[in-house]
Specification:
- By secondary structure, the chain is α+β, with helices and mostly antiparallel strands.
- The chain folds into three domains: 91 residues, Chitinase A, domain 3, CATH 3.10.50; 45 residues, Thrombin, subunit H; 113 residues, Alpha-Beta Plaits.
- Helices cover 17% and strands 30% of the residues.
- The strands form three sheets. Strands 1, 2, 3, 4 and 9 form a five-stranded antiparallel β-sheet that branches. Strands 10, 11, 12, 13 and 14 form a five-stranded mixed β-sheet that branches.
- A hairpin with a 2-residue loop joins strand 6 and strand 7.
- Helix 4 runs antiparallel to helix 5.
- The longest helix is centred in the last third of the chain and has 15 residues.
- The protein is globular, with a radius of gyration of 22 Å.
- The two termini are 43 Å apart.
Length: 283
C-alpha cells in the first residue's frame, strides 16, 4: 500500500552531505559503526517513527515518501531549500565567555551547545567572547538520503506505543505497557523512566499527541509501577484507582519523597463536563 500523509511509518535512512560525502546520520547499526557515529555502548540505531506530513523529517524527504511502497529503496537529493534551509548570517551571535563558565562549560569550536533553550554550534572562541551559530548544522548543505519505508503501522496498539516511545526515547519501547478500555487509555511508565529529566513535560506532550491523533480518546492516565527486588512482591502506584501500598525498607532507600508515592496523573479532555480531578503526579 503506497504511503500517504497521515500514515504512521517506520523509516530507515542514511544521510550524507553531498559536498563532503560525509555520512552524518543513519538508522542502520552497521552503517553507524562504519561511519563512527556510535556515541557510547547504549547507542541504538533502528527505524525512525514518523507520522507522514507532520514535518518530523525535512519537507523534501517527506514529499518523496508520499506514494512509496514499503520495502522500496530510493535515493533522494535535497537542495538546502528542501532540506534544512539556506544559511542565515543573521543567526550568528557573539556571547560573553562568562555565560559558559557560569554553567561550568568550556566552549570549543564545533561543539553543540544550548543557549536560552535553543541549540547552537560554537564557531570561534576569542578574548572574552564566543561566536555561536543558531543555524541548523546542516543548513546550506545539499543532502543525499538513501531511504526506505520499513513498515506502515496499521495496528492501533503499535501506533499508541510509538507515540509514547517517541517522547521518552531513553527507555526501550518494550518496557511500556498500554491498556485501552472504551475511551480511556492507561500508560504504564516503567521504573527506568522515573528519574529522567523532563518526564512530566513528556507526559503532557504524549497526552497532546494522543488527543490529536486519536480524537475519540477521552481520558489518558499514567500508571507508575515500583517493583521489589523479589519478583514475587510488588508495590504499585495507580493513577486510576488512587491505591498505594507502603514501600519496603529497600524502597525507602531510593531518593523518592513520600508525596511522590501518590497516584500519578489522569488527564481528561476539558470539553467533557464530568471530568474527574486528577490524582497527584509521581515525581
Amino acid at each position: 500500500m503506497p504511503a500517504k500523509d497521515g500514515d504512521f511509518l517506520l523509516v530507515n535512512y542514511t544521510l550524507r552531505v553531498k559536498e563532503s560525502g560525509e555520512t552524518v546520520d543513519t538508522t542502520i547499526d552497521s552503517v553507524a559503526k562504519e561511519a563512527r557515529l556510535h556515541k557510547g555502548e547504549d547507542a541504538v540505531f533502528e527505524p525512525r517513527f514518523i507520522v507522514l506530513g507532520e514535518g518530523w523529517f525535512p519537507k523534501g524527504l517527506e514529499e518523496s515518501l508520499v506514494g512509496t511502497e514499503p520495502g522500496i529503496k530510493k535515493t533522494v537529493e535535497l537542495t538546502p531549500e528542501k532540506g534544512y534551509g539556506p544559511r542565515d548570517p543573521g543567526k550568528m551571535r557573539l556571547v560573553p565567555l562568562r555565560r559558559f563558565r557560569e554553567k561550568g562549560e568550556e566552549p570549543v569550536p564545533g561543539r553543540q551547545v544550548e543557549l536560552d533553550g535553543r541549540p547552537a554550534v560554537v564557531r570561534a572562541v576569542g578574548a572574552g567572547r564566543v561566536q555561536v551559530d543558531y543555524n541548523h548544522p546542516l543548513a546550506g548543505r545539499t543532502l543525499v538520503y538513501d531511504v526506505s519505508i520499513e513498515k506502515l503501522l496499521e495496528d492501533r496498539s503499535d501506533k499508541l506505543l510509538s507515540l509514547v516511545s517517541r517522547k521518552i526515547p531513553e527507555v526501550a519501547k518494550d518496557k511500556f505497557n498500554i491498556r485501552e478500555e472504551s475511551d480511556e487509555v492507561t500508560i504504564e511508565i516503567p521504573e527506568e523512566a522515573f528519574y529522567l529529566s523532563g518526564l512530566q513535560v513528556a507526559k503532557k506532550s504524549i497526552s497532546a499527541d494522543l488527543e490529536k491523533y486519536f480524537p475519540k480518546i477521552d481520558t489518558i492516565a499514567f500508571r507508575e509501577v515500583y517493583k521489589r527486588t523479589s519478583p514475587s512482591e510488588t508495590k504499585t502506584s495507580d493513577s486510576t484507582s488512587g491505591e498505594t501500598v507502603s514501600p519496603t525498607e529497600r524502597e525507602l532507600e531510593k531518593p523518592v519523597e513520600k508525596p511522590a508515592r501518590k497516584a500519578s496523573g489522569t488527564r481528561k479532555r476539558a470539553s467533557k463536563p464530568k471530568a474527574e480531578t486528577a490524582a497527584a503526579e509521581s515525581e
